[in-house]
Amino acid sequence: MKRLVSLLLGAAVLSGCQSNQNDEIQALKQEINELKSVQREVAVRVGLAELVRPDVLPLSKEGQWLGNKEAEIVILEYTDLHCPFCKKFQQDVFPELKAEFIDSGEVAFLARELPLSKVHPKAPYAAVLLRCAAQQDQYEPVREKLFELGANIVPDDIDTIISEFELDKEAYDSCRADKSVHQKVSDSILEAKTLGLESTPSFIVGRRDGNTLTDYKIIVGAGSVEQFSAAIKALR
After folding, report:
1. Residue 147 to residue 93: CA distance in whole angstroms
2. Residue limits of the Thioredoxin domain (predicted)?
3. Are 108 and 70 in contact (CB under 8 A)?
4. In the 3-class helix/strand/coil scheme, how is the chain assigned residue by residue?
5. 212-220 and 57-58: which strand pairing?
6. Could you tell me which residues come within 8 angstroms of residue 213 by beta carbon, excluding any fewer than 6 positions away?
7. Which of these, 59, 156, 208, 231, has the minimum number of CB atoms within 10 Å of its CB?
């Protein structure tokens, strides 16, 4: 009996030691994660976020989806409607990319905004105009129109857009004045900077894993169909 009690006490002590050790490991992991979080925050503030970019990126569901939303491979775009390189991508690369990979359902394309207001002061408002057009299912044609107008856009062009694409003027005007729409553009800019993206266009091509992107590759600039094709094929 004494021997049995001793064995039970010994097992309890070992179990307690194991439990304490697990607690210490978990506490250490939490401390490391907190340090990484602080490190990323500091890096973002000093413009070096790309140096501490995590291996797994959060996948925002906010933005304009094109193609099969459930596709395993995702291209996440950050664009500026007044950026000449973004316009070059839209005109020279996107049509073939869309036809080969997006329309087929293999790749989902998520468009987000990164208007560089210091060099393109009207770009944030152009982003709002596009979001409001998307609310009336006119995202793609209005996107092309806004790239065509570029930084030379004037107030009369808004009336032209409303007329040309048969938008509901009252709803469109209400959307343009909606502060929450402007905030979504600001949130997209902050998200891009948190990822260390400061040039446009910037693309993240990765594999969807739940609400994250893994095994991703970043393409900065207009790129080429060949570049995107290689990144996509590497994820198959």
Report:
1. 14
2. 7-236
3. yes
4. CHHHHHHHHHHHHHHHHHHHHHHHHHHHHHHHHHHHHHHHHHHHHCCCHHHHCCCCEECCCCCEEEECCCCCEEEEEEECCCCHHHHHHHHHHHHHHHHHHHCCCCEEEEEEECCCCCCCCCHHHHHHHHHHHHCCCCHHHHHHHHHHHHHHCCHHHHHHHHHHCCCCHHHHHHHHCCHHHHHHHHHHHHHHHHCCCCCCCEEEEEEEECCEEEEEEEEECCCCHHHHHHHHHCCC
5. antiparallel
6. 56, 57, 58, 59, 74, 76, 204, 206, 207
7. 156
Return the structure tokens found at 138: 């006119």
